[in-house]
Amino acid sequence: MTTFDSAFRIVSNLVKDFKENEKYYLSQNYQEADVRNDFINKFFIGLGWDVRHETQKNPYEQEVRVEKPLFIAKAQKRADYSFALAPDYRTVKFFVEAKKPSHDLTNKDYYFQTARYGWNATTPVAVLTDFEEFHIVDCRFRPSIDDALNYKLKKFHYSDYADKEKFAEIYWLFSRESVADGSIEKYADALPKPRGKKARAVKGLVQSIDEAFLEELDEIRNELAKSFKNNNEHLSSEELTEATQRTIDRLVFIKFLEDKLIEPDHYVSNFGKRKSAWEDFIIVSRKLDAKYNGVVFKKTKIDEPNVIEPDDKTFSAICDDLSHENTPYNFDAIPIHILGSIYERFLGKVVHATDKRVTIEEKPEVRKAGGVYYTPQYIVNYIIDNTIGKLVEGKTPKDISKLRFADIACGSGSFLITVYERILDYHKRWYLANPEKAKKDGCILYGGSYRLSLKQKQEVLTNNIYGVDIDQQAVEVTQLSLYLKLLEDETTATANDTWVLFKEQLLPDLNKNIVCGNSLIGTDILDSKLFDFEDEKKIKPMDFENIFSDVMKAGGFDAIVGNPPYLKLTLNNLSKNIFEYYNSKYESLKGGSSKNLFQLFIEKAILLNPKTISYIVPEALLTTSSNQVIRSIMAQKKNISDLVLFDHFVFKEATIGSVVFVLDEKNTKADKTIISKLEPNSSLTVIKEIEITKSDEVWDTASVNVHSKILAKILKDSVLMKEIVQMSKGMVVKNRKQHLRTKPLKNDLPFLLGSSTSRYDSRTSFYTNYYELTIIGGTSDYEKQTKIPRLLIRRTGNILSTVFSNDKGLIESTLYILTSEKINLKYLLGILNSNLLTFYLQQKLITNVQGFPQILMWQLDQLPIILSNQSNEKIISLVDQMLVAKTQLHQAKTEGDKNYLERKCERLDKEIDQLVYKLYNLTEEEIKIVEESVK
Predict the structure, then answer these.
(1) What would the CATH number be for the domain defined by 377-690?
(2) pLDDT value of position 870
(3) Taking the chain, what is the end-to-end CA distance rounded to the nearest angstrom?
(4) Cβ(482)–Cβ(531) below 8 Å
(5) Rounded CA gap, 713 and 840, in Å?
(6) pTM (2 decimals)?
């Protein structure tokens, strides 16, 4: 019997039982707890889930979480069931909300409640059921009580469960085997997107939890900052930023305590019911500070009466929106790493105050870097599992207490949250396997199993976790995030036990662990330079030996992980003093023209000499000449054990390739580097092993290639293109759109974009005056920009798309400019646009062909070109015909002419390909491989 047939038999029997006693089951006497036990549990057991934990007895490793009914102020705090998949027990795949059968499920409160669970946990669908009915609820939209009944996707009556075809809809969506096969994600992807009137109706609701909460935090910050300023005109930008940030942090933390049931009271809803909302907020802050300690409630200027406070109308409205009756947010369901991603972007802006107004502005360093790039969780997981995970494996809690793990550019703490989570999870597993040690070490017996006490979790946090960031707000948010993780599994009872029985505050002081300072600049910068205090405050020099003296005396950090900032280093965005300091301290700045902050963070991590280092950085690390020195340092000082590539853009906001590296200690034998590819679903594909030495010009991470003999043949009698051409990049223009015109004025030149070109073909759509432009990158030299004849190669794409240009014009940065005195450019054009050269590029050079690939200059440099007089004239003749045919195609007025010219271009393309194959001496079999491989 198949699993489906077995499930259908079990559920059909449940249908029979329900029908026989339907009158009783639909009566008021039949309670929710009864229907859960008699029917709903058995229903999902039939679908393959271990609802009663008969197999998964470890409370930390159970796919189905079943909640006992618990209401606080008439609001249920947690969904009745949550379903996850091993080994990731924290990521909920879907929720089930249960009701007693006598209730009508078509109730907007029930729908709002169910959708709220799913939306906060980023699960696209949830189930609302009383067994009599089974409703599938859409959780993609920000929940609104008024619109809640529109979230229904599908409704089944219990009689439908006995219909094989209808039951199959439920089974193949919610059975364990289906969920493990991605059924929830596939179903959500296939759901129609709102269009037309419906799209306008839900505008603002079609948001993920992180987008919506970030927007809400931005609005709260804006309202609070203006209110603080109106009431306190003397406040500076820094004071306003701090007051606003601290207020928001407290509100978030209080909501977390409420929703996690660590605090039984609804504080936020009651602000303003005794005194003013702000006074009540400060009173609760002082009360919670005594209990929790930590940076969140630490007394500052906002706690002093009549010193800094907003107007009460504004603050009361903010609290009302966040109250449990009105807010769509449930902090019990929001994963803490999602909160981290929200805060990472939130911290990219600060409050800026003048005498008359308040604005929210991007921080200068964020603006220069082009935005805030939050690392996706699957990459954080990979980095932590392959560094900290390996270091703690096989060790006892006592051994682990001596290990020190750091992120020296920690931002909002996303990496440190996961480090902390992994160590806690390891401790839980270790004590379950060693119960005789659990009680001795202070674990608490809870629900028949030992769990870590709050004190043990505090010790792990203060012993193992360290971070540095130059931004004080980021440091405070990191501490806040770690506190949330510390308290995540606590309850009112366990928190009160620690507070009342043991007289201990719940949060440890993290000021010696998470520090505000400059990881790259030591206090020696102050020795020979005179800085005023304002400049010194911005630099925030810091010595690891002083700040982390105990760690350094004990041998330093065991692992450093993270996503360091990416920022080009120039005198335009650095002071001369800092630029000189970097040059004097860091070897990686020597050689190459383009310098970047991430290079310094790699070198600093190496100088701190931990056992292992893992960062995600731009893919340019692997190949560009400006990274040659840091590559050499990495290979000389450490073993590059892993390089992880991606077939997609990791950061949605930035179209740059990325790579993860893992460095560890050198072995006595020859070190190998494993090249892998990582997908967003966390699947890892090992590609090959290579040996890397400090003398390697580039790190060749191209795939293991079954076509290596063909590639060697192509290369054999060729010269590299860099030996026969001069190449430069097009220009990067500030506020480009403001200067482009569709009709030229006097002294204008054509301005060619990459998007305006294709193979053998280009169209001029825009014009501009060179002397009006502010050129901020690429080739700004007028002579290089306008020199003709030339070839232009499109930078984006995974095929070589090259055009011939004999017209003076300006070239944009998505094109490369090639000139040469050593080779006929039309001959070179034919070779570059051939299938053979694209095959070589795709097989040997490009690493991200399935994402949003970009052809880099070093890849073009490595293209093999045969210099042959025999085929020159034939290829040049065909290229000339192709250029004429492309021009005629643009001018064609009838479909007949267009079809003829398109066929002519296809024929010429094939003829050029055949000549190029012959030029490189390919056999018929090899030609077939090339033709089938080119994408």
Answers:
(1) 3.40.50.150
(2) 67
(3) 44
(4) no
(5) 11
(6) 0.74
Q: What is the DSSP letter of 96?
A: E
DSSP code of 512? T
**Alpha-carbon gap, residue 675 to 333, rounded angstroms:** 36
pLDDT greater than 50 at residue 387: yes
| Kind of pairing between the strands at 726-729 and 790-794 | unpaired
Q: Give the span between the Cα atoms of 875 and 918, in whole angstroms.
A: 11
Token pair of 459 as six digits = 């010790």
| pLDDT of 849 higher than 50 | no
| Alpha carbons 374 and 340: distance in angstroms, whole number | 9
Cβ atoms within 10 Å of 109's Cβ, excluding its own: 9
For the chain, domain boundaries:
3-201, 209-362, 377-690, 708-933
Tokens read off for 198: 């419906």
User: What are the strands, taking DSSP E only, across 358-457?
Assistant: 358-362, 405-407, 444-446, 449-451
The C-alpha angle with vertex 758 and arms to 755 and 759, in degrees rounded to 5, equals: 160
List, in sequence order, every residue forming a beta bridge with 128; answer none if it has no partner. Answer: 97, 135
Residue 656 has pLDDT above 80, yes or no: no
Model confidence at 471: pLDDT above 80: yes
In angstroms, rounded to a whole number, what is the distance separating the alpha carbons of residues 892 and 908? 18
Alpha-carbon dihedral sign for residues 494, 496, 498, 500: negative
pLDDT tens digits, one per residue of 143-165? 888 888 999 999 999 999 999 99
Q: Where are the alpha helices (DSSP H) in 146-276?
A: 164-174, 176-180, 183-190, 196-201, 209-231, 237-259, 267-270
Rounded to an integer, what distance in angstroms lies between the CA atom of residue 769 and that of residue 862? 35
pLDDT digits (tens, 9 = 90+) for 657-696: 789 999 999 875 667 899 998 988 888 988 888 888 877 7
* 934 Cβ contact list (under 8 Å, min separation 6): 799, 835, 838, 839, 842
- 770 vs 193, higher pLDDT: 770
Domain 3-201 is found in CATH 1.20.1740: no
Assess contact for 746 and 795: CB atoms under 8 A: no
Distance from chain centroid for Cα 406: 20
Whether 751 contacts 788, CB under 8 Å = no
Cα–Cα distance for residue pair 274/260, rounded to 1 Å:
25
Token pair in block for residue 741: 């015109």
Q: Quick check: do 377-690 and 708-933 share a fold?
A: no
- The fraction of the chain above a pLDDT of 70, given in percent, is 91
CATH top-level class of 708-933: alpha beta
Q: pLDDT class for 540, splitting at 50, 70, 90?
A: very high
Cβ distance 794 to 754 under 8 Å?
yes
State the chain's maximal CA–CA distance in angstroms: 96
Q: 3-state SS string over 834-869?
A: CHHHHHHHHHHHCCCCCCCCECCHHHHHCCEECCCH
pLDDT of residue 662: 96
Mean pLDDT of the chain: 86
- Answer whether 481's CB lies under 8 Å from 413's CB: yes
